[in-house]
Amino acid sequence: MTTYSKATGLLTVLLTAATVPMIAVGKKAADPVATAQQQAAVQVDSNRAWLREQEKRSADLHQNTPVPEFLRNQPPRSLAQDDQSFIDQLAAKQRQDAAEQPAEGALYFVSFAIPEEGMRRMLQEARRFGIPATLRGMVNGDMRETVQRVQKLVEAGGIDGVQIDPQPYSQFGITAVPALVVRCAAGFDVVSGNLLMAQALKKVAKDGDCAATAQALLDKESGK
C-alpha cells in the first residue's frame, strides 16, 4: 500500500492507492481482469496528480501551515474505505480537541445547500467572531468535491475553512441551517435563520441562558 497524506489547510485529505500490478497482454483477446487493473492504475495516477495539484494550490495560500501531528501518524488506508472512515476519524479528533477546551463558546452550522454568496458571507462573519463553522458531512458524499468547494471559498478570501462533524447536529438538535449555538455551563442557546452573526449573538445576549458568553463574543469582536 502506498499512502499519500497532505494537509490542504482547508480540509485534511488522505488518499491511499493500492499498487496495481500490470499484466502483459499478447496477441490474444484482452483479459478483462487485466483491463480492469489497468483502468484502476489510471485512476490511481489521476488521484496522485489531483492531490499534487491541491498541495501546490494550498501551499500558495498557506506556505507555513504545518501538517497536523495526528495526520502524520495516519496508517495506510484502503481507497474504497477512505472518505467516510477518514471523516469519522477526523470528526473524532475534533471532538477530542473540543472536549479539552472550555465548555463555553459557540459553533456555527452551515451547509453547501446555501448559495455560494451567502455561504461566503456566513463563513466570513464566523471567522470575524472566532466561531468555528461545521458541516454535517461531505458534499454529495465525495471528499474531492468537498475540498474543491471549500477551496473555492477560501481562494475568494476572508475564510479559513470548515470542519466536518455530524455529532454536534444531533447533540444540539440542529435540523435546519444556518444555525448558531452558544454554549455555557447553564446549557446552550440555538438561533436559527439567516441572521447576521452580530444579530444572532445580540439575541442570545438579551434573552438566552448563555447571555454572558454571547456578550463576551460581541465584546471580543468589538475590541472591548
TrEMBL record:
Give me the gene this protein comes from.
trbC
Name this protein carries in UniProt: Type-F conjugative transfer system pilin assembly protein TrbC
Lineage here is: Bacteria, Pseudomonadati, Pseudomonadota, Gammaproteobacteria, Enterobacterales
Top-rank taxon of the source lineage equals: Bacteria
Where is the region Disordered?
A: 55-78
